[in-house]
Design brief:
It is a single chain. The chain is mainly alpha-helical and 705 residues long. Helices cover 47% and strands 8% of the residues. Among the domains are: 85 residues, no CATH class; 161 residues, Orthogonal Bundle (Lysozyme), CATH 1.10.530; 70 residues, no CATH class. It has 31 helices and 11 strands. A 3-stranded antiparallel β-sheet has the order 2-1-3. The chain has a two-stranded antiparallel sheet with strand order 4-5. The relative contact order is 0.10.
């Protein structure tokens, strides 16, 4: 009786929350047949079975295939293709208008309905798809989820996000914290490196994507970011797979946030099967997770790990750490999955500032005690990784300024314009002039050392205002010519003090170089996955595991968190975005800045204005080539910046009378202007009015954590 009363009270108080959840996470009836398809995939057929179905009308399932567990992959593929071909032939026969001639043809016709037009059968012949079952993987994920659900719930609650989002890792990784996809998405939440670096530490020693606790906090930040940009949870969740830029474009093209219209009507080469079904899969997973025993019977859920955390005040080898703590290295490794293999092999040290997890029985340890004990342990030599000579600080300082060498400057608070195309070496070489562990300078200090470029400025007017000669300004900031000036850029007014070559500096350089190179590798992997998507429908558990999430084919995890639209409009214009200059456009188009000034009727030497439309000419390159160069430039800026910084949250700033982009940027010198724009993509900073809410990312220096 007491149990029933408690249950009734619980249901009574939860009812408002359920209503709120339904409003925030709608389940439109038009989507219900497709949701039911995914529920069946997740609960009724295993990875030794699969459906041949229509990829647009998922409820049309032509056949269920069953395989023996030991059937080789090539035999499975051959059988799938044979049955697919047979169904396609039936559909093409029905498309001719002929009546069904046998039971197979009648079955297919019944699936579509008597009144289906012949043309619809012709379309369906090109849309036959195979979906491998996931019931065994989903059941295993429900068991694993017990270890992480409490922490996920706390993180979501602390950010005010819907508790139901806790079901998302079922779609992403089956709650496998060690999951790794073929395109490089990793961990419980399947972060790509480029996106993960925004919110986590990812460098040669640490990859926090593999830490379920840190990755959960990062995922909540990303989802909250998506929601602030897009305004609805269906779009924010879809953007987790497809990217914020794509969902903003879908919303703009269709003029709606209605998830039904967007899933049914939005067309884009990158909005494929996986992205189109991501929200549907989430709703299916949520349904199962809310009542798992209905689908799988009694389950013994995993238990939450017990540990204590201690922050390292100085770096230490894994051998010295295990010896000092009296903990087996394997135990230490299992508790600290974010430490990369190079740490355990002895090639790298556990970095200073890293929070080490110890078994729950190790409560006596504190940071001070650990530091003292480590100091008494005989040092263990850790192999260091030295950056190539061409990226050491001395080499960077000696190198002559080139347009490419400017690009990385836009990726950090220190000033200098950006241009392109950019190479990894140029990004890292430029990063060598910045402090490896910067303390956010005060506005007063920044004002004395830097000048913030405004829209009406020229190099000559800045020189007159600051008393620094034109030649000195260009030398201090490695500006090749006046066309590489942009609004919001910070120009150095005094020479920077030389940075000593330290291990930290070398490590930062190595991280920056690795970040840029990995960003390029990631782009190539994603492009390759897109090209081969039609050929990679998994037919076995091993193939499904390699894909990462349970949707296949398609991308795994977020492609990017950058919401900026870098595409060229049909009329040949673009929106000018932060950190771009007239010099960039000339480089990317293979033309002259003078020609572009003439086309756009720009007078004098003023920079292009962020937010304005700018006319391009494509005499030497195609719009697609221009877009590729533009995206690559911004991706490399961001990769270099997030090699040493991460976003720890956001805060809201209310604009006052007299505020402008320049004044807001001056108060937040750690935040580059392009990042401020990304967090406020719909804000016209040229018309900033009192009372306007500005979202400010809170940035931390990774090296100082």
């Amino acid at each position: 009786m007491k149990f029933r009363l408690s249950l009734l009270l619980c249901l009574f108080f939860m009812a408002p929350l359920v209503c709120v959840a339904e409003d925030l996470l709608p389940r439109p009836p038009e989507l219900e047949p497709d949701i039911q398809f995914w529920i069946k995939v997740y609960t009724q057929i295993s990875t030794n079975e699969g459906y041949l179905h229509d990829q647009h009308r998922l409820s049309v399932v032509y056949e269920t295939l069953h395989f023996d567990a030991d059937t080789p992959v090539h035999e499975r593929k051959a059988r799938v293709e044979a049955q697919r071909t047979r169904i396609e032939e039936v559909l093409r026969h029905l498309a001719s208008g002929a009546a069904p001639q046998n039971a197979d043809e009648q079955k297919v016709r019944d699936l579509w309905g008597e009144n289906t037009a012949p043309a619809r059968f012709a379309e369906a012949a090109d849309d036959v798809r195979f979906q491998l079952g996931q019931a065994d993987r989903f059941r295993a994920g429900l068991i694993r989820a017990g270890a992480w659900e409490a922490h996920i719930g706390e993180v979501l609650a602390n950010l005010g996000l819907p508790a139901q989002i806790a079901a998302l890792p079922h779609v992403e990784s089956s709650f496998d914290p060690g999951a790794y996809s073929k395109v490089g998405a990793a961990g419980l939440w399947q972060f790509m490196r480029s996106t993960g670096r925004r919110f986590m530490r990812i460098d040669p020693a640490v990859d926090e994507r593999m830490d379920p606790f840190r990755a959960t906090e990062a995922a909540a930040q990303l989802l909250n970011y998506n929601y602030r940009l897009l305004g609805t949870w269906p779009l924010a969740i879809t953007a987790y797979n497809h990217g914020a830029e794509g969902m903003l474009r879908a919303r703009e093209q269709l003029g709606t946030t209605d998830i039904v219209r967007i899933l049914h009507e939005y067309r884009s080469p990158t909005f494929g099967f996986a992205s189109r079904n991501f929200y549907l899969c989430f709703l299916a997973a949520l349904t199962i997770a809310q009542d798992p025993e209905k689908y799988f019977g009694p389950l013994h859920r995993g238990s939450e790990p017990q540990f204590v955390e201690v922050k390292l005040s100085s770096s230490a080898s894994s051998v010295a750490l295990a010896k000092t703590l009296g903990v087996e290295r394997d135990t230490l490794r299992s508790l600290n999955p974010a430490l990369r293999p190079a740490v355990w092999s002895g090639q790298r040290a556990v970095p200073a500032g890293y929070v080490v997890r110890l078994p729950g029985s190790s409560s006596k340890w504190t940071s001070d005690l650990l530091a003292a004990r480590l100091g008494a342990v005989k040092p263990v030599v850790v192999a260091s990784v030295t950056p190539p000579a061409n990226v050491l600080p001395q080499a960077a300082a000696a190198a002559p300024p080139t347009p490419a060498a400017q690009a990385a400057a836009a990726s950090r608070p220190a000033p200098s314009p950006a241009t392109a195309p950019v190479t990894p070496a140029a990004v890292v070489a430029s990063a060598a002039t910045a402090p490896a562990s910067a303390v956010p300078p005060s506005a007063e200090a920044a004002a004395s050392e830097y000048y913030l470029v405004q829209n009406d400025d020229t190099v000559q007017s800045i020189a007159a205002r600051t008393g620094v000669t034109v030649n000195k300004l260009m030398e201090l900031n490695s500006i090749p010519d006046a066309d590489y000036l942009y609004g919001g850029q910070r120009l150095r007014l005094v020479a920077a003090a030389p940075e000593p070559e330290t291990d930290t500096t070398s490590a930062t350089l190595a991280s920056a170089r690795e970040a840029v190179e990995e960003s390029q590798e990631e782009d190539q992997a994603v492009a390759a996955a897109d090209r081969s998507a039609a050929e990679t429908e998994p037919v076995s558990a091993a193939q499904a595991q390699a894909e990462g999430p349970q949707l296949a084919p398609g991308l795994t995890g977020q492609d990017t968190a950058d919401p900026v639209d870098y595409s060229v409009a049909a009329d040949g214009t673009i929106h000018v975005v932060a950190a771009e200059t007239l010099g960039h456009y000339a480089d990317w188009l293979g033309t002259s800045a003078a020609r572009l000034r003439l086309v756009n009727k720009l007078h004098g030497r003023k920079p292009v204005v962020m937010g304005r439309r700018f006319k391009l000419e494509f005499d030497h390159v195609t719009p697609a080539q221009f877009e590729q160069r533009r995206r690559a430039y911004h991706a490399q800026i961001q990769a270099a910046y997030f090699a040493s910084h991460r976003i720890a949250g956001t805060e809201v700033y209310i604009a006052r009378r007299g505020d402008s982009l320049w004044s807001i940027t001056q108060r937040n010198v750690q935040v580059p202007i392009w990042l401020l724009q990304q967090y406020n993509p719909d804000q016209d900073f040229s018309d900033l009015r009192p009372g306007t809410q500005i979202s400010l990312p809170k940035v931390e220096d990774v090296a100082g954590l």
